[in-house]
Each structure stands twice: as structure tokens, then as C-alpha cells.
Design goal:
By secondary structure, this protein is an alpha/beta fold. It has helices spanning about 30-45, 65-70, 95-100, 110-115, 120-135, 145-150, 155-165, 170-175, 195-210, 225-235, 250-260; strands at about 15-20, 50-55, 75-80, 105-110, 140-145, 180, 220, 240-245. The chain is globular, with a radius of gyration of 17 Å.
Length: about 260
């Protein structure tokens, strides 16, 4: 299994890499055990980037069983969403404390599918990030432009406006978070930003992070990351890892992404 130092820091300086599996609404009690057995055997003899950290984000109901499967594996556990509230009458919501109870260390917030299907704004996303950080979870804040914005050359403006409420959380909070740039047009579509296109956006996010006193914030790329394009993306200066959807459901493919050069 890949090495994980389990430290609370993860520098966005290219020294460490973070690979995050976003299972979305996939997986089943029957399949999950097979997945980890296959992942483990694919990783067993593979050599990989020396400091790769891998996080698995299954649906809420599988968090506990995945936590058990990950025990002693060096892999870490994350959730796909968190409530902005501590507790109370919020049917269907899951609190940060509940995620801690389920052994999560990470949580994805502001995924484009949450923004699109649940009308989550950038302000709500930042509030979720704040709630996660307040409980010692590390949020992975997703940003990304639509195809229309991409075609009309508005990518950097969209990213800036999505991140604006995040910087307002303050440098101390922001130092605990990770940003994932996921162009909406690349998610699940088989279309990927080229490494150079992605790097351009990442460099812009890095400059925004720098202006907010957290230049070393880890920046992930997401959107149709696969075994055959991961190395090219990881070679870019400001790409510190990947948020992987579809390809994270295939243990062989996901192992190849984790172990990509
Ligand atoms: P994809 O999804 O890898 O299937 O494109 C990425 C994501 O939505 O996080």
C-alpha cells in the first residue's frame, strides 16, 4: 500500500501528492469488500511516488465499513458532503461531528453536482468548509467552470468568484483546506483539460492563495482523470494530485492513478 505519513500537513509544493476517490452514489455492501481486496493486490507490489496520500470518499452509509477496510492500510477516509449545522432538525443532513464519529479525516465540499442539483452556492460551500475546519476535518473545496463559461473565456473569473467566500474564512482556516479544480465540462465526460490548460488555472489559483497567505495550499485537478492521463497532469508544477470519480470505482485503474509517476 502507498505510504501515508498521516501528518496533518500536506504542502502544495510538489513534494507530496494527494489522490482522492470520489465514489459519488456508487458502491454496495456486496462490492466494497471486493474493491479493497483488488485495490490492495494491485498496489501490493507497485512502486509509487514516495509521498502519495490516498483518500477514499464513499457514500455516507458505507463510511464505517470502509473505515474498517482501510484500517492499517495507510489509506484515509473522507465524506462527500457535510452540513453547515452542528445538529438539529435538518432531515437528511450529516454533521461534521458525525463524520468524525465515522473516522473521517476529509470531506469534499462544493462539488459541482452539489452546486447543480442541490443549489449550493459558493457561500454555502465556504460555510461547509468552515464547519469542517472547526471540527478538525480537512475540506476539499471544489471549483470549476461550465462548458459555456469555458467557451466564452470566463474560466478564471468564475474560479475567482467561487473562491472569494473561501478566502474570507481567513488564512488560518484556509491553510487546512485543499482546492480541487474540476471543470464541469470534464466531469464524467471523458474530456479532460490538457495538462497545460489545467496548469494555467492552477497557477491562477496558486496566485490567489498566495495573495491570501497560503501559497502552499494543495491543488487537485479533477475531471475524467484516468490511468493514462494522470502522469501528464501530475507533472505540472501546480497540480498536487487528483480528485477521481469514475476511475476510482475500478480498483486496477485507481491503483494505476495512485502509482502514476
Ligand atoms: P470523473 O469525476 O473523474 O468521473 O470525471 C470527477 C469528480 O466529479 O470528482
Amino acid at each position: 500500500m502507498p505510504k501515508s505519513d498521516n501528518s496533518s500537513t500536506l504542502a502544495g509544493d510538489g513534494a507530496e501528492r494527494l489522490v482522492v476517490a470520489n465514489w459519488k452514489m456508487n458502491g454496495s455492501a456486496a462490492q466494497n469488500g471486493d474493491f479493497f481486496a483488488a485495490l490492495q493486490s494491485n498496489l501490493a507490489n507497485a512502486s509509487c511516488h514516495s509521498l502519495v496520500r490516498t483518500v477514499i470518499c464513499p457514500p455516507f452509509v458505507y463510511l464505517r465499513e470502509v473505515a474498517q477496510a482501510l484500517d492499517d492500510s495507510g489509506l484515509e477516509l473522507g465524506a462527500q458532503d457535510v452540513s453547515v449545522h452542528d445538529s438539529g432538525a435538518y432531515t437528511g443532513e450529516i454533521s461534521a461531528q458525525m463524520l468524525l464519529d465515522a473516522s473521517c479525516q476529509w470531506v469534499i465540499v462544493g462539488h459541482s453536482e452539489r452546486r447543480q442539483y442541490h443549489a449550493e452556492s459558493s457561500e454555502i460551500t465556504a460555510a461547509k468548509a468552515r464547519q469542517a475546519i472547526a471540527h478538525g476535518l480537512r475540506p476539499i473545496v471544489c471549483v470549476g467552470e461550465s462548458l459555456e463559461d469555458h467557451r466564452s473565456g470566463r474560466t478564471l473569473d468564475v474560479i475567482e468568484s467561487q473562491l472569494a467566500p473561501v478566502w474570507e474564512l481567513g488564512a488560518n482556516a484556509v491553510r487546512s483546506l485543499v482546492v480541487a479544480y474540476e471543470p464541469v465540462w470534464a466531469i464524467g465526460s471523458g474530456l479532460t483539460a490538457t495538462p497545460e490548460e489545467a496548469q494555467k488555472v492552477h497557477a491562477h489559483i496558486r496566485s490567489l492563495a498566495q495573495a491570501n497567505n497560503c501559497a502552499s495550499m494543495p491543488l487537485l485537478y479533477g475531471g475524467s482523470v484516468k490511468a493514462d492521463n494522470a502522469s501528464g497532469l501530475f507533472a505540472m508544477q501546480d497540480i498536487d494530485g487528483a480528485l477521481v470519480g469514475g476511475a476510482s470505482l475500478d480498483p486496477r485503474e485507481f491503483a494505476s492513478i495512485i502509482t502514476a509517476e
